Amino acid sequence: MSEAQGAERQQLLLSYLEAASQIGDIAIKRDFFGDLGSERAIRRPSYRDYLQARLEMTRSLPGPLSHLPITDLDGIPDCSSGTFVHFDFFPGNVLVEAGRVTAVIDFGATSMIADRRLDCWSAVAYLDAELAPEANLEDRALALHWLEQRGFGAEFAAAKRWIASYWCFAFDDPKVSAWCSRVLAP
Hints:
- It is a single chain.
- This protein has a single domain, classed as Aminoglycoside phosphotransferase (APH), C-terminal lobe (Aminoglycoside 3'-phosphotransferase, Chain: A, domain 2, Alpha-Beta Complex), CATH 3.90.1200.10.
- Helices cover about 40% and strands about 10% of the residues.
- The protein has helices spanning about 5-20, 45-60, 115-125, 135-150, 155-165, 175-185, and strands at about 35, 45, 85, 95, 100-105, 110-115.
- A four-stranded antiparallel β-sheet has the order 2-1-6-3, covered by helices on one side.
- The chain is globular and about 45 Å long.
């Protein structure tokens, strides 16, 4: 993305966002909401129960960010039908050819069964300066507009705080640590 400019850059960013919105089309269905690849998988019968259990686990882990995660799910919509969520969908995990996303990589420990909008919200959140320094203000504005157009904008701030709370375990990554600290600052 750092080399593309103008209309080509906008098209690439929209391709990135559309790819994030399509991850949930991958046909993986489970009778739970929760982690797929994690060693310490959390699985719950309801989405909100999973989100809350994940927060509690993150707060219980050792590390300098364990005090930061949110304590409630205010503003995060419920979901009755979970789909596959990549959850590590950021510019470094997509392959691009001819100005379009052609592949998504690094399906792993963060994959989960959850609300498919999480990949859309996280793809936009991960464009923040700490995590994607190659993204600029115009890229971020376009991404926020894209969320609004899809009706996902109203919940974005709350979802972003949950996403940052999830990542508080990654305090050994300076970029992620700085991002979590900023997003979750009181």
